[in-house]
Every structure is written in C-alpha cells, then in structure tokens.
Amino acid sequence: MSNLRDDTFWDGPSQEPLLPKTGKRTRGKPTTKAERMETRGRARALQALYAADVRDQAQLRRIATTVFDDLAVVPEERAFASRLVATVADNVAALDAALAEVTNNWRLERLGVIERCVLRLAAAEMARDETPVKVVLQEAVHLAERYGTERSARFVNGVLDAYARKLGKL
C-alpha cells in the first residue's frame, strides 16, 4: 500500500484534465494585462462549456461554478467567464440554431466537443456585443488551436466568419 497511485486502480492510465497545449505562441503581439485576463476568462469559460457538454448541458451554470471553484479562478476572470457562460446557458438553443445555419453539411451535434464549445462561446460573445467582432474571431481561433488542432482552428475561423457576416458584423 505504500506506492499506490490512482492509475493503478484502473485498467488504464488516469485521464488528464483539459489543458492547453504548451509551446510558443504563434500569432499576435504580446498582450496587455487586461487582454490576458479576458483571454484567460475565455479559456475558463471554454473549460466549463466543455465539462457541461460531456456531462449535462442542462447543468451548465452549476458545472461552471464547480469548475471555477476547482480551478481557483481569480474574481475578475471568473466574472468575465461567468458572463459568457450565462449568455450560453440562457441562449443555447438560439445560438445552436444560428450556428447550424452556417455550418454547411455539418450538424452541430456531430462536431467535436472543442469545436462546438468554441463556436458557442464566440457566438455568445458576439451576442453580448461588448467586444469587437475581429477580437472575438481571433480569440476563438486561438482557443480552437490551443485546445484542439490547427484543423479545428481553420474550421472555427470559417464558421465564425460566415456567422459574423450573416449577422452583418463583418
């Protein structure tokens, strides 16, 4: 019993939490403190959306609170992320329907969880109309690339570009 680890209990290794890829950032200029807080807040919101998507979307607010508590998210990031999560929670059906209109040949439920969550997050932020659309697009692509793949980032960029144009924001 001296050297027991959690993964020895299971047949396979324990699942790692959703973490960003490490490495050199390839896009953009160095960010200011305020921008970094918003970027971190978007990442926290994405983590909550991801957790709710794989568990129970109807419990998004409760799951987000648990995720933010578990990660000890600082108050300003938490407030920003909570506003985005609340917008998704209040409007998920409308956001999904609007996104489905611009995802040609793709049903939203067939997308990967990361892509679906990033799209919802960006659509919610566009609906809030507090951040310039180009910033929302850039941040969404960065999140898709960071937590997904380069291919995810290209897909998210194309869908959100079409979505923003449909809304008349680009």
Features:
170 residues, mainly alpha, N-utilizing Substance Protein B Homolog, Chain A, 0% strand, disordered N terminus
Helix content: 55-70%
Residue runs with pLDDT of under 50 for 5 or more positions: 1-17, 24-32
The domain tally reads 1
**What is the strand content?**
under 5%
Annotation, overall tally of beta strands: 0
Identify the CATH architecture: Orthogonal Bundle
- Name the CATH class: Mainly Alpha
Question: What gyration radius follows from the Cα positions, in whole Å?
Answer: 17 Å
Number of helices: 7
SSE run: HHHHHHH
Major sheet characteristics: none
Distance between the termini: 61 Å
Mean pLDDT: 84
- CATH topology: the name is N-utilizing Substance Protein B Homolog, Chain A
Q: What structural class do helix, strand and pairing data support?
A: mainly alpha
Report the CATH superfamily. Answer: NusB-like
Overall morphology: globular
Could you please describe the fold and organization of this structure?
67% of the residues lie in helices and 0% in strands. It has 170 residues and is mostly helical. It has one domain (31-167): N-utilizing Substance Protein B Homolog, Chain A, CATH 1.10.940. Helix 3 crosses helix 4 (75-102) and helix 4 crosses helix 5. The relative contact order is 0.12. The model is unreliable at 1-17 and 24-32 (pLDDT under 50).
